[in-house]
Amino acid sequence: MNQRQLFLQHVAQTSPAPLALEIVKARGVILEDAAGKEYIDLIAGISVCNVGHCHPKVVKAIKAQAEQYLHLLVYGEFVESPQVQYAKMLADHLPESLNSIYFTNSGAEATEGAMKLAKRVTGRTNIIAFEQSYHGSTQGALSILGDEYWRNAYRPLLPGILHLPYNDNAVLEHITTDTACVILETIQAERGVHAPLNSWLTALRNRCTETGTLLVMDEIQTGFGRTGHLWGFEAFGIVPDIILLGKALGGGMPLGAFVARKELMDCFTANPVLGHITTFGGHPVSCAAGMAAMKVLLKEKLIQKVAEKEALFRQLLHHPAIKAIRSRGLLMAVEFDSFETNKKVIDRCIEKGLLTDWFLFGANSMRIAPPLTITKKEIRKACEIILSAIDEIIVE
Ligand SMILES: Cc1ncc(COP(=O)(O)O)c(C=O)c1O
């Protein structure tokens, strides 16, 4: 059997039609497959590789840490320098009230931890989440996911979850002294990039404060410069009680985190002790990689260049088949009339050496979320490919 057949046979599958590209090398914005064909990567591993694939400083940090130690002991027992230094760096770049970092292995685990923390802190069990939201695929995270199609096969899920429309003031009256937390994506990514109104988020923040409800914001896709700010919530002038991090947090290595005020996080130390535990969360190599990536992000001033790159995409992507473009920095959704058109354009783009995909709850929109290191030349080339792909499929 060749590699592709072995992949289909022995690697557990999640869709009947996986992309099945065999990538052998990735550098910067470019992926190379086994036949030597190159692809411009417009999705960055779904908002993971914000500083590009295999940035030399990230690779160097991984190698250096691998020479020192790998796994030592379950999370939270030893003083492990990569965790400590990275936690300090994150805290230094967050509002003062977000000063305690609980490292996990993934975004979904960060969601789980934050939901547990909100219950412990408030002594309440009800959670408000939003329609068309995505916070991960484990059962707690799935319980707050905002789409019945994806949830239904796994019932019974967690009780006490209320799903409400995003950006709608009706939510305010549902937040009461029985609500443990309100959890939302700062920008709804998998819905196809929908941002909240400033006034709505402010009202939500105020209502949470009034009722002693924790406001949890999922920054897993929007963190680390993706939206043109280090953290997505910065654009809205509010500070959440808990944030969720993942994806770019590990610089290409698996890492997640939830972040809260230390006094809240300390709930996990008693009644019961070990209130949330993980063997591998905050793996030293992942923390070393993540910290190196964050240093690159800041030192190379990548965030400051996001707005002009977003503007260039928007300026170049004009075509009658494009119905709308929604964007917040380099998190962009290009909308077509249907999933069928979108899929055809995406497939043609891949044939032509450009990798993109659609959104979980926004199947008629194409994802543009490249490494933030993408150059203007690469953006021009990418847009040329997208426009010619649209022309070709429309003629057919
Ligand atoms: C907004 C958001 N939250 C949570 C997650 C879950 O992260 P993970 O896949 O690392 O569990 C994702 C993953 O796509 C996400 O986009």
Automatic annotation (TrEMBL):
**Phylogenetic placement of the source organism:** Bacteria, Pseudomonadati, Bacteroidota, Chitinophagia, Chitinophagales
PROSITE patterns, per the entry? AA_TRANSFER_CLASS_3
| InterPro entries in the cross-refs | Aminotrans_3, Aminotrans_3_PPA_site, Class-III_PLP-dep_AT, PyrdxlP-dep_Trfase, PyrdxlP-dep_Trfase_major, PyrdxlP-dep_Trfase_small
Gene Ontology MF term list: transaminase activity
Highest taxon of source: Bacteria
Cofactor needs: pyridoxal 5'-phosphate
Task: Quote the CDD domains the UniProt record gives.
Answer: OAT_like
Q: Which family does it belong to?
A: Belongs to the class-III pyridoxal-phosphate-dependent aminotransferase family.
Q: Which UniProt keywords apply?
A: Aminotransferase, Pyridoxal phosphate, Transferase
Protein name (database record):
Aminotransferase class III
